[in-house]
Amino acid sequence: MKNDIPVYDISTFEEYKNAGILVSRFGHYSKQYLHLHSAHRHSFYHMVCFTKGSGLQTIDFKNYPVLPGMIYFMTPGQVHSWAFESEVEGYIINFSENYFKSFLYNPLYLENFSFFDEHSGDAVLVLPEQTMTKVVSLFEEILHEGKESRPFDADLVKLLMLNIFIQVSRGLSLKQQPQTNSYNQTLLKSFKKLIETNFIELRFPKQYAELLYITPNHLNALCNDLLGISAGQLIRDRVILEAKRLLINMELSIAEISEKLAFSDPSYFIKFFKKQVDSTPDKFRKQDK
């Protein structure tokens, strides 16, 4: 079986592999790992804050400008690339999925932050000036802790990182999003989790409704109320995202991608993709080159 696009583990960064974390000034990182400018995936969490520079970055086939004051968060499995137009500076932290699990009583704590949900729309942000000042100060403290070995330095780095997450989240709260039923939000989060682990095998809302112990009508109404799309469309969007991730690997044929996504026939996959994207898989692949 041919490999997918490059997937980098935290162990790729040898000097940090034992700690499960990489912390660096972005300019140094960008020059040291030039191959990471091309499309690739991570098996770890990835956070970048830009303080200087311009250009374009692509995260799961959506383009975002590179701007001073911008911070973005990526979860394991997402595809991204950079195309810088000028010298870029800032901060980067990569950390493994298990980095906080032995430190926090609640192993799902990061799920409290909307920017670690790739579907939330909060993963790429331009920070308010006051928040940016606080965040830059915290990044500098983290870099300082890495210069020498001192008691509890690893724990302090985790605390400083959590402080960054909290400061960014507080900045987000200024958007004053309307209050929604917490039960419905929890149910939607559970539905998204189930899609993430089952979208290849389970394609119909009724299958997920059974797992959630609710009716398909309830699930569909929930998605329409909170997201403005149907439950079925949310499932189809996840299938299409994975198809796009696979299509940028030029070594995989359309038939192989169809098989990976459990379509019974390549022609059915092509029809499905064209209906959702308004482009054939082959045209999409050529456009993304």
From TrEMBL:
Tagged with keyword Transcription: yes
Entries under Pfam families matching the protein: AraC_binding, HTH_18
Signal sequence segment: none
HTH araC/xylS-type domain segment(s): 189-287
SMART domains, sorted: HTH_ARAC
Gene3D superfamilies given in the database record: Homeodomain-like, Jelly Rolls
Keywords: DNA-binding, Transcription, Transcription regulation
Protein known as: Helix-turn-helix domain-containing protein
The organism of origin for this protein: Pedobacter gandavensis
